Amino acid sequence: MTTITLVQGDITRQSVDAIVNAANSSLLGGGGVDGAIHRRGGPAVLEECRRLRASHYGKGLPTGQAVATTAGALDARWVIHTVGPVWSATEDRSDLLASCYRESLRVADELGARTVAFPAISTGVYRWPMEDAARIATRTVRTTPTSVEEVRFVLFDERAYDVFGRQLG
Ligand code: ADP
């Protein structure tokens, strides 16, 4: 059984086995969660991202996929980088957003991670509406078979925390 928990705060302050990063496909860092993770994780995270890019993802990590690196100076063992879809009003990209959660949990299982922290993927710069993102995130985590014991959603602000709270009932 996987327990789903909810925390309002900064994902880079979480003590968990794996922290999920809402990365961009370049894997070379960016703003939002990505910037915060690289700042606090330090150069070891970026170095491994660069190596992964050179060895496997020359064209970038595809949207909906996930890959793990060291967590550097973070209080975690791994960072799982996943690339969320940019919100589109004309195209349904829900499957890609669900895939971020599924693939991150698959990678977490491969690593043997028991506790995993997720941000609200795609709800920042990628503009996904929070209600819809929360519905997809919670539904996907509830329905994906995994050995992860705790999935912790870490929401930056009170509004996002309330929206996720309503989805979890
Ligand atoms: P994306 O590009 O996938 O939209 P962002 O990093 O821009 O990713 O935003 C994703 C969500 O993460 C947003 O809701 C944003 O408020 C939130 N966020 C930003 N910084 C942090 C942080 N340090 N910890 C947790 N959540 C954060």
From TrEMBL:
Entry EC no(s): 3.1.1.106
Name of the top EC class for this enzyme: hydrolase
InterPro entries: Macro_dom, Macro_dom-like
Chain ranges of the Macro domain: 1-169
Superkingdom of source: Bacteria
Gene3D superfamilies: Leucine Aminopeptidase, subunit E, domain 1
Keyword rRNA-binding: no
GO molecular function: O-acetyl-ADP-ribose deacetylase activity
Keywords: Hydrolase
SMART domains named in the record: A1pp (SM00506)
Range of residues in the leader sequence: none
Pfam short name (any one): Macro
Protein name per the record: O-acetyl-ADP-ribose deacetylase
